[in-house]
Amino acid sequence: MSDAILEALFETIEDRKARLPEDSYTASLFTHEKGENAVLEKLGEETTELILAAKDEDETEIAHESADLVYHLLVLLAMQDMELADLLAELETRRE
Ligand SMILES: N=c1c2ncn([C@@H]3O[C@H](COP(=O)(O)OP(=O)(O)OP(=O)(O)O)[C@@H](O)[C@H]3O)c2ncn1[C@@H]1O[C@H](COP(=O)(O)O)[C@@H](O)[C@H]1O
C-alpha cells in the first residue's frame, strides 16, 4: 500500500467528517450514539477477524480484514483530530 493510497483514503475520511453525508458509513461512525466507542469496537472486531483469517492462512481474507482494520484505524486518527502524517512520522522514526 503506497502513501498515496493512504493519503487519498484519509482525505476522504476527513471530507466525510466535515460534511457528514447521510449515506456515508464513515460519517455514521462520527455521529454514532456510542461516540468513539463505535470505532473502537469495530477495531476490536476487525482485529479478531484478521486473527481468524491468519489462523486459516487465507491470504484473500487476510488482505480484506487488514484493509478493514487500516480503514478503521484512520477513522480513529481523524476522530482524535490527528493527521495521517502523525502515524507516518512515527513509523519513519523506527526505520533503521
Ligand atoms: N475503506 C473503507 C472501508 N473499509 C471497511 N468499510 C466498512 O466497514 C464496515 C466493516 O464492518 P463489518 O466487518 O461488520 O462489515 P461486514 O459487511 O459485516 O463484513 P466485511 O466488510 O468484513 O465483509 C463495512 O460496512 C464496510 O463497508 C469501509 N467503508 C468505507 N471505506 C472507504 O471510505 C470511503 C468513503 O465511504 P463512505 O463513508 O461510505 O462514503 C470509501 O470510498 C472507501 O474508500
UniProtKB/TrEMBL annotation:
User: What pathway is it annotated to?
Assistant: Amino-acid biosynthesis; L-histidine biosynthesis; L-histidine from 5-phospho-alpha-D-ribose 1-diphosphate: step 2/9
Q: Name one GO molecular function term.
A: phosphoribosyl-ATP diphosphatase activity
- Where does the record say this protein resides? Cytoplasm
Q: Which InterPro entries match?
A: HisE, PRib-ATP_PPHydrolase-like
Quote the Gene3D superfamilies the UniProt record gives.
Answer: MazG-like
Which CDD domains does the UniProt entry name for this protein?
NTP-PPase_HisIE_like
- Cytoplasm as a keyword? yes
From which domain of life does this come? Archaea
Which EC number(s) are documented for this chain? Answer: 3.6.1.31
Q: Which GO terms describe its cellular component?
A: cytoplasm
Q: Name one GO biological process term.
A: L-histidine biosynthetic process
Main location (coarse class): cytoplasm
Q: Can you state which reaction this protein catalyses?
A: 1-(5-phospho-beta-D-ribosyl)-ATP + H2O = 1-(5-phospho-beta-D-ribosyl)-5'-AMP + diphosphate + H(+)
Alphabetical keyword list = Amino-acid biosynthesis, ATP-binding, Cytoplasm, Histidine biosynthesis, Hydrolase, Nucleotide-binding
Entries under NCBIfam families matching the protein: histidine_hisI
Q: Which family does it belong to?
A: Belongs to the PRA-PH family.
Under PANTHER family, the record lists: HISTIDINE BIOSYNTHESIS BIFUNCTIONAL PROTEIN, HISTIDINE BIOSYNTHESIS BIFUNCTIONAL PROTEIN HISIE
Designated name of the protein: Phosphoribosyl-ATP pyrophosphatase
| Gene designation | hisE
